[in-house]
Specification:
- By secondary structure, the protein is mostly beta strands.
- It folds into four domains: about 110 residues, Neutral Protease Domain 2 (Neutral Protease, domain 2); about 90 residues, Sandwich (Immunoglobulin-like), CATH 2.60.40; about 80 residues, Immunoglobulin-like (Sandwich), CATH 2.60.40; about 150 residues, Lipoxygenase-1, CATH 2.60.60.
- Helix content is about 15%, strand content about 40%.
- It has six helices and 30 strands.
- A hairpin with a 2-residue loop joins strand 22 and strand 23.
- It is globular and about 80 Å long.
- The structure holds calcium ion.
- Calcium ion binds next to strand 20.
Amino acid sequence: MTGQWKNGRDVVREGSFFRDISNPRINHVRNAYTGTSDNGGVHSNSALVSYPFYLMYSRYGFSRNVLAALWYKSMRTGRYYAESSLQDVRVALIRAAKKLGMSSQQKNNIRQAFNDVGITQINGNIHGIVTDRDAGTPIQGATVLLTKENGTGTRIGFETRFDGSYSFDVEYGRYIVTVSKDNYITFKAMREIEEGDYGDFANELNVALVKEGKGNISGTAYDATTGNTLSNVTVRLREDWSVADPYARTITTQTNANGFYSMTSVDAGYYTIEASLTHYADAFIETTIAPGRNTVNNIVLSPETSGDVYRVTLQWGANPRDLDSHLIGKLPNGTNFHVYYPSSSRRVYYNGKYVAILDHDDTQGNGFETTTFSMQPGDTFKYYVHWYAGDGTWSGSNAVVNLYKGTNLIGTYPVPSVNQHGNTAGRYWHVFELTNGLDPIVRGSSSIRTTAPTLD
Ligand SMILES: [Ca+2]
């Protein structure tokens, strides 16, 4: 590409071309073709997507190679379908830039190129329910505030509704979410909201407020695959949920020879547990210490694996007694596999190599289950959790699923906020489906249903 931006110049007569990408007739949404010919002018209106490419090159200093990588990535990870809008392209490119590790400046330049043609930003959504941790009842009239993390202003407030719910549509950014209410300790968490975080991508943050007092926290650290306890794990309790505050109060301890740690008489509040041990992926757990109670947070650490191995861990609280991990997919010969607890179904091999192994399962409360698997390009696997037995509710299970690729944590899925027993709400938690490629595409459809997912 040496400044040649004329589409089709080699296939039509000398000196002619179809469209000049550097100077298209349709260069802004306001002069888009809106008639019915050519299926709504798909060819001439396509300039609204190709012109930002040119602007990123000519106006915002992206190299052609970077743009090629960006567009390619967006095609692989974007949510494109027949009804995709121009804004979906913008959202897909920003998501791709994020996956490529581009800087904020580069992402802003992408946004600017789309603004230049009139494809403006769309908001993302965050919503949740605020409850009293002790009583489990919704809190009406709690103040939920969203403040841009860099402190440059955007500050949006909301009072929770009668059912404790709140919902915001906000522009992209990293936000500090605070939830306050008289007589309760103020809650604080960092959440990143990206453009187009709607539907399956919407952010859910449920908050159970506690009152002042002292509580204890304890737990045991385990190897995710062997189930053995781990000693000398560094366990750091850090104030607030995932807020990058260098002045946050921290308390640090280590697990003993039995893998056990405990901290007593800790101020009630909201904390992030950061656990680390050499040759294991770091683990992060957002937790709450309630006054007069002992909070149990076991720590499940995933041993290092090679970069193309996936591992999924499921952890849950005292109730229900027994949740089960299920992984389904197709083998290269077209037959289906299903990896779960029966001894004959714990391992699947293909051509002498393993596809998936249920490394660890539990049948009692405060358990964890681990499945390790490898995928071929283009494979799609689905992961779900079955409520096998026990009391309580889905929300009260405190279940969380973590997905690793190598030592990178690529997804965390808290259980959906369904305040019902599995018998009432459904016994199947559809957690995610994963399509393997240069970049894995994970859809966190996360919902409770009455039937298990099936393979297409
Ligand atoms: Ca189980």
